[in-house]
From TrEMBL:
Biased composition (Polar residues): 241-253
GO cellular component, one term: cytoplasm
Lineage, top ranks: Eukaryota, Viridiplantae, Streptophyta, Embryophyta, Tracheophyta
PANTHER family from the UniProt entry: ADENYLYL CYCLASE-ASSOCIATED PROTEIN
Record-linked InterPro entries: Adenylate_cyclase-assoc_CAP, Adenylate_cyclase-assoc_CAP_C, Adenylate_cyclase-assoc_CAP_N, C-CAP_CF_C-like, CAP/MinC_C, CAP_C_sf, CAP_CS_N, CAP_N
Region described as Disordered: spans on this chain: 214-255
PROSITE patterns referenced in this protein's UniProt entry, alphabetically: C_CAP_COFACTOR_C, CAP_1
Record domain C-CAP/cofactor C-like: where: 314-451
Name of the protein in its database record: Adenylyl cyclase-associated protein
Membership in a protein family: Belongs to the CAP family.
GO MF entries: actin binding; adenylate cyclase binding
Length: 474
């Protein structure tokens, strides 16, 4: 008889024995019924087919690849146990959900920890697994207002993040070792179509909690400090990730402010020699104090704040969920840098003042929101660079950018490279927009072009015709 068929029969017998052993106790019946639920059985078959194939390929390689694949197998086993518990539990509140998913969080932290420290020869294998495990967070979906994509989309997006490193494995070992190629292909099929199709069939709208099951307990609250009439002292100011020393202009031509910084960046001089890089331990997904696949749905309060910058808000420069770089409330920092990025990530810059950020790589999208006297230098952007609600900003594209949009902004200098001269620039409710383009020759000065901010609307032939106002020096 086929070995797999025997294993399935033995599994079915074990479930029946569990069901009969439950007797008349409600808890036993619920546990047994959950274990033989069709979605749980389907997940076991899915693991046997896809996780088993990845594990088989890892054993042929051994070493760190086998170790990280065992962590992957552990993560899927934890998810199976959580699916069984969901069948027996009522839908918890956010605090209860975080506690419920704690075992899965711990495995994710364990996988991320294997990518830290000195890079090994199998770094791409480790990153492929560590980044892909975040796909299992689909189980945390609680509705359209929970702050994450729907389960199917979440699985696909998480794999896209990991595929960057998985493709590196395929390219590196294509003509060297077929075992690595087999492992990488099996890892991809585990998520697409494997996990994606499973979620699509059984949980397209998220987990289905029991209406009559037990209540999920939240984590115990920390003991309250003794009350005192005196107000608590303010927290110490956050330590900056960067030094406050600004690079000096390299040209003798008198320039001040952002123009001096941009001139040095464009000169090719080693202006980044004093920068501190964002290391793995600084990233949100690798920080133990901020790790987790589930976070409370934090509503933004930016719309209610005044135009002045809040001194209480701590500065941020971190990668969230492996997909979004967040740069917030950086004040007077002229040497911020992001150098570990890829084309699937986005950059969101908010509430910064009198600072300069360099993005040393291709990213998908850049948004600059509510910044003053901010300079941003980037190489390539896949989608667009958006500047909204800003005042006195300077943005330089050193590579290509298909679209640049400026909205509700006063005073904006755009520096375009030769590769970005074909960019589509859209402006709305903005003033003092200047675009600087490189000269024809290598030593020629930049050419400056002011974009119109006044328009004439004339009614002609049954419709309004809009033309920009041209000014003369007469």
């Amino acid at each position: 008889m086929d070995e797999k068929l025997v294993q399935r029969l033995e599994s079915a017998v074990a479930r029946l024995e569990l069901l009969s052993a439950g007797g008349s106790s409600g808890g036993g019946d619920a546990a047994a019924a959950a274990a033989i639920d069709p979605s749980v059985i389907a997940f076991e078959e899915f693991m046997e087919k896809y996780v088993g194939r990845v594990m088989s390929g890892a054993k042929k390689i051994g070493g760190q690849v086998e170790d990280v694949t065992k962590v992957l197998e552990q993560a899927f086993s934890v998810q199976k146990e959580l699916l069984i518990k969901i069948k027996q539990s009522q839908k918890p509140d956010m605090a209860g959900l975080v506690e419920f998913l704690k075992p899965l969080n711990e495995v994710i932290i364990k996988a991320n920890a294997m990518t830290e420290g000195r890079r090994s020869d199998f770094f791409n294998h480790l990153k492929s697994v560590a980044d892909s495990i975040s796909a299992l967070a689909w189980i945390a979906y609680t509705g359209k207002d929970c702050g994450m994509s729907m389960p199917i989309a979440h699985v696909e997006e998480s794999w896209q993040m990991a595929e960057f490193y998985n493709n590196k494995v395929l390219v590196e070992y294509r003509n060297k070792d077929p075992n690595h190629v087999e492992w990488a292909k099996a890892l991809k099929e585990l998520y697409v179509p494997g996990l994606r199709d499973y979620v699509k069939v059984h949980y397209p709208l998220g987990p289905v909690w029991s209406a009559t099951g037990k209540t999920v307990a939240s984590a115990p609250a920390p003991p309250k400090a003794p009350t005192s009439k005196a107000p608590a002292p303010p927290p110490p100011p956050p330590a900056s990730l960067f030094t406050s020393e600004a690079p000096q202009p390299s040209s003798s031509r008198p320039k001040v402010g952002m123009s001096a910084v941009f001139q040095e960046i464009s000169s090719g001089m080693p202006v980044t020699s004093g920068l501190r890089k964002v290391t793995d331990d600084m990233k949100t997904k690798n920080r133990a104090d901020r790790a987790g696949v589930v976070a409370a749905n934090e509503k933004s309060s930016r719309g209610t704040t005044s135009s002045s910058f809040s001194k209480a808000a701590p500065p941020k420069l971190e990668l969230q969920m492996g997909r979004k770089w967040v740069v917030e409330y950086q004040i007077g920092k002229k040497n911020l840098v992001i150098d570990d990025c890829d084309a699937k990530q986005t950059v969101y810059i908010f509430g910064c003042k009198d600072s300069v950020l360099q993005i040393q790589g291709k990213v998908n999208n850049i948004t600059i929101d509510k910044c003053t006297k901010m300079g941003v230098v980037f190489k390539d952007v896949v989608a667009a660079c958006e500047i909204v609600n800003c005042n006195g900003v300077e943005v330089q594209c050193q590579g290509s950018a298909p679209t640049i949009s400026v909205d509700n902004t006063g005073g904006c200098q755009l520096y375009l490279s030769k590769d970005s001269l074909g960019a589509s620039i859209t402006t709305a409710k903005s003033s003092e927009i200047n675009v600087l383009v490189p000269g024809v020759g290598a030593g020629d000065d930049w050419g400056e072009h002011a974009l119109p901010q006044q328009f004439v609307h004339a009614y002609k032939d049954g419709q309004f015709v809009t033309t920009p106002v041209s000014h003369s020096g007469g």
